[in-house]
Amino acid sequence: MLQLFTLLGALGMFLYGMNLMSAGLQKASGSKLRGFLTAMTSNPFKGVLTGLGITSVIQSSSATTVMTVGFVNAGLLTLSQAVGVIMGANIGTTVTAWLVSLLGFKADISLFAVPLMALGFILSLSKRDKRRHISELIVGFSLLFLGLSLMKESVPDLKETPEVLSFIQNWTSYGFGSVLIFLVFGTVLTLVLQSSSATMALTLIMVNMGWIPFEMGAAMVLGENIGTTITANIAAAVGNANARRAAMAHTLFNLFGVCWALLFFRPFLALIGTIITWFGLPNPVEIDPSTAMTMTEDQSMATLYGISMLHTLFNTFNTIILVWFVPVIVKIVSAMIKDRSSADEDNVKLKYISAGPLSTAELSVEQARNEVVHFAEISRRTVDHLRKAFAARNDKEFEAARQKLVKYEEISDRIEYEIAQFLNSLPEDSISEQTRTETKRMYKIIGELESLGDSGESVSRILARRNSHSKSFSEEQCAKLETMLGALDKAYAVMIDNLRQEHFDHLGLRLATDCEIELNELRNNIREEEIRKIEQDGANYQSSVYYLDTVSELERMGDFIINISQALEK
Asked: What is the CATH number of domain 361-569?
């Protein structure tokens, strides 16, 4: 039992080290990695290279595919682009297998892992964020290989106690049925661990220790490629139709690959064996399973390299075959998953972020930023509804406009809450200091946008009180309110342009300030002129009060808008 728990603990150390290394890389690269993904083109081949590059860096195809699904959900990547990225991610994930094969078994990397942890600790004491993030990367790398070393040491010795895993060895005696059994075993193991890299490491250990012959290890690799698709499907479950289609494309891609690999299983293994012999090593396919527990060092290396080579060639061949059929894949998944989204304007929902945080916290900030811009664009619709409320000629038209303003106030409350909830879900220890500052800025901005919704609803209440007293605005007053709405709409446009900027500049703040000054001057001029009229004609006093209250609320909306641009500068 102690040996079993040690094995589980070593597996946990391996997974934690991988997550820590991935998080450190993401925080160290920050916005550069986000920009690399968002700078995608419509060329599927470039998409493949991008997916390969990102997965090679962050050492997790699951992270890349989940991130890609999120970007499809955000509209930053088209479905065709996403399919290319996912294909590349499948190739990129084979880097882990080669790292484990080349370093984890041939050399005792754990001897270097402990001194590396000392280096990581020293860097963690630095006041510079960059060095602290690199320390996470180094410590994660060390834990990953320490976990692998412990897994190798804690597995049962089948030469002394063969009965420990005799049930697994019994699975190898059913011919091609055994291949299917181990394929399912690899799939289930990946589903449980939620990491194809961890399952690949276990597969390499099982083959290296002689638990299973080479061809059963190959079958487990095929199963791992099916199991790894579940992570993206879980992430897409709360996304839009295109996000679910991207996850389904990942599943179809890997299922197609497993089908042709099973169909040509023996010739495919023969090809792998031939390639390994080119390196001067024995053919892993020809190693007698009965002597697996007494393999020589060359035979052990041949099986390790053979499993890694099979993983690489499987995903490479699959990509080479299917990259030409990306449009066909898009059509298939689009037919399988219908878009049931409502076209109702008032059915406003989050566009760029899902209901929960992505597994890649640093990379999700780009989506949150775009959601804030989307929130600002929704808030700008208040101007049109105010214009309709001012121009209403009867109670029915006014009530329709008032209901819209009330509705959008509720929408702004909901969107503010959902964005804040998303930002709260980002673990602070998984994002850089720069990103942490940016998230605090976003809290301020969404608060101001919510206040804009409140102001729109406040104007509707002022107008409703005016109507209840059978008062109305004159044509001259309506014309001046229209002028203020024009200035307010202009201020909105400048604010949204500022929010869209990757790097906020002083020109944007100056333009926003000019809009605020214009609104203040309009408010002051209107107030002075209206007060003079009240002094001359007291009979219109009550109507003038409602008019001035409306003007003040419009100018107050300008204050919220300038606060947003000022928040971007800090």
From this structure: 1.20.58.220
